[in-house]
Amino acid sequence: MADGARAKAGAGSYPLICLNATTRPSVSSCWRFSSSCSGLSRASTFSIAFDAKKDADGRDEPGHDDVGELPLKAVLSALLVTMTISTAQAQSLPGGFVYLRDIDPTIIQDIRYATPNNFVGRPLAGYGAGECVVKRDVGLRLKAVQQDLAAQNLSLKMFDCYRPARASLDMVRWSQNGHETAADRRYNPHIAKSELFRLGYIASRSQHSTGAALDLTLVDLKADNSARIDPAKSYADCTAPVAARLPEGSVDMGTGYDCTDAMGHTAAPSITPEQRAWRRRLVAAMAKQGFVNYSKEWWHFSLPGAGGAAYDFPIQPRTR
Q: How crowded is residue 120: how many other Cβ atoms within 10 Å of its Cβ?
């Protein structure tokens, strides 16, 4: 869902959009982000700088490059160029980001927020494709993890990687819309959705937007992972036995992905020894490459020092 210790900034605390040009503007030259500004999301042109506040994991203080003021005429010219660039050119990713599929195509991807199969029940803002986008160093380390796992007939499965900042704000809006359905309760069986933001399970800022955080699990390649979600079926909540909850095509970690419950805590005492062993195996495999697990979400990992500025470029289909 959101991340780490969860920043408790209000939903109106929008990050800042800064031109990522040769001569970049300082914070005083930035504009407030609006989800309606879809024309201002050219992947190689814009980034978002967190205004000297901690990210949602509470582990870093990503900032921005204060390089000097950009003349207004240059800013307007850059905006005009940005708004006329075609979608076909949007493959150029900013800030050292890459498609994980270009680093290691063997890593399984199930990017939930690009589908209706998530706690919001629809694709989130900014997810134009189910592609895992990461910082290059993060991708190379994931490749190394995957190589170690392959020898054990296991694979990583990615649920979420880079997350556009607008998607986190979309989560906040969803949590405050005043409606709660049975599908919502599958992911939040014991907490009202209206409480998720106050309790810190959803945050308006996420380390995922810096490219340093990941949501993932393990897949046993020898097992039958063919089960698919049946839209007509009524599934149990995320804490139910694996046969009763939404199929995920992965090992049984004791809860489903994005389960807002104490059972989702990595060291939860209520899970079985086998489920605990799988969690420890995942944590150990990731730790070998420097990734750190968030103790309240068995699926959430981050790479210390890999973050920085947060971004809001939309995730587009990979075309090459």
A: 23
Beta bridge partners of 155: 219
Among candidate residues 155, 161, 159, 111, the one with its CA nearest the CA of residue 282: 155
User: Is 254 in contact with 261 (CB distance < 8 Å)?
Assistant: no
- Tens-digit pLDDT profile for residues 89-138: 346 899 899 999 999 999 999 999 999 999 999 999 999 999 999 999 99
| SS3 state at 65 | coil
Beta bridge partners of 294: 297
CA-to-CA distance for 104 and 86, rounded, in angstroms?
A: 27
Distance between CA atoms of residues 166 and 125, nearest Å = 6
Closest CA to 22 of 70, 62, 64: 70
Better-scored residue on pLDDT, 9 or 275: 275
Strands ordered across the beta sheet of 16-19 = 31-32, 16-19, 46-49
Query: What does residue 5 show for φ and ψ, rounded to 5 degrees?
Result: -70, -10
Please give the Cα distance from 203 to 184 (Å, whole number).
17
Domain assignments of the chain as residue spans, ordered by start = 98-302
Tell which residue, 105, 95, 166, 167, has the closest CA to residue 131.
105
Can you say whether the dihedral through the CA atoms of 155, 259, 117, 35 is positive or negative? negative
Measured CA to CA, the distance from residue 152 to residue 221 in angstroms comes to: 9
CATH 3.40.50.150 matches 98-302: no
Q: How distant, in Å, are the alpha carbons of 116, 143, 187, 219, 248 from that of 108?
A: 19, 12, 22, 8, 12
**Gap between the Cα atoms of 140 and 161, Å rounded:** 14
